[in-house]
Automatic annotation (TrEMBL):
Name of the molecule in the record: L-serine deaminase
UniProt cross-references to InterPro entries, sorted A to Z: ACT-like_dom_sf, ACT_dom, ASB_dom_sf, Fe-S_L-Ser, Fe-S_L-Ser_bsu, Ser_deHydtase_bsu
Keywords attached to this entry: 4Fe-4S, Gluconeogenesis, Iron, Iron-sulfur, Lyase, Metal-binding
UniProt KW Metal-binding keyword: yes
Reaction(s) catalysed (UniProt annotation): L-serine = pyruvate + NH4(+)
GO biological process, one term: gluconeogenesis
Organism lineage string: Bacteria, Bacillati, Bacillota, Clostridia, Eubacteriales
Family according to the record: Belongs to the iron-sulfur dependent L-serine dehydratase family.
């Protein structure tokens, strides 16, 4: 009798990775890598706050090495992950881990605090949701919800009429289909997340960067 639910091979076997845990190792590596790409600046000091099960098992399950590797841009199956703590220290990056209750969030959640001289602190929060998959749930205090499985555009700007229309127009003019779009507001600031079905080009990113009043923009390829 069919249950109506279909599984792909990846759902059963999980990701190709350096173990031992898809959530605590592969997911942690991908979270750190995505946080690094969102931050987009050279790394000086990173505080990784560990919520829930991460806070109890991050050493035994290799989450600390996975985070270090992800911050260096390593993939979950990169054999250098076993030495990632040494590698990140060799680059002069100050990485520390601290248990932290982040409230009513997924049990496998981390918050990355990026600290640099003479710059405001920048934070990225995300969850490892199983099978090496992730969700980014907060950028610098604004709620978000995206996976990194699509080419993604992140815009932050003073909330004003016309920005959704302008962003949609750029996608239309460049024959890009929007898979998902979310806009979240905090006080007078809006954060827009656009996930695309197709890869973006430099022409697209240039057009977005020319939008008025934009104070943060990041384009993340799949």
């Amino acid at each position: 009798m069919s249950t109506g639910k279909h599984y792909q091979m990846f759902d059963i076997l999980g990701p190709i990775m350096v173990g031992p845990s898809s959530s605590h190792t592969a997911g942690a590596c991908r979270l750190a890598n995505m946080a690094r790409r969102i931050y987009g600046a050279p790394l000086h000091k990173v505080i990784c706050e560990l919520h829930g099960s991460f806070s109890h098992t991050y050493r035994g399950h290799g989450s600390d090495r996975a985070v270090a590797g992800g911050l260096l841009g390593l993939a979950p199956d990169d054999e250098r992950l076993v030495d990632a703590l040494r590698l990140i220290a060799d680059k002069g990056i100050d990485l520390t881990f601290t248990p932290k209750d982040l409230g009513n969030v997924h049990p496998n959640t981390m918050r990355f605090r990026f600290i640099a001289p003479d710059e405001p602190e920048f934070t990225v929060t995300g969850s490892s949701i199983g099978g090496g998959n992730i969700r980014i749930t907060d950028i610098d205090g604004t709620a978000t919800d995206f996976t990194g499985e699509y080419p993604t555009l992140i815009l932050r700007y003073p909330d004003s009429p016309g920005m959704v229309y302008a962003a949609s127009g750029i996608c239309h003019d460049n024959n890009l289909n929007i898979a998902h779009m979310h806009v979240n507001r905090l006080d007078q600031t809006a954060t827009m997340i656009i996930e695309l079905d197709e890869p973006f080009t430099p022409r697209v990113t240039d057009a977005f960067q020319k939008l008025p009043q934009l104070d943060f923009f990041k384009a993340i390829a799949r």
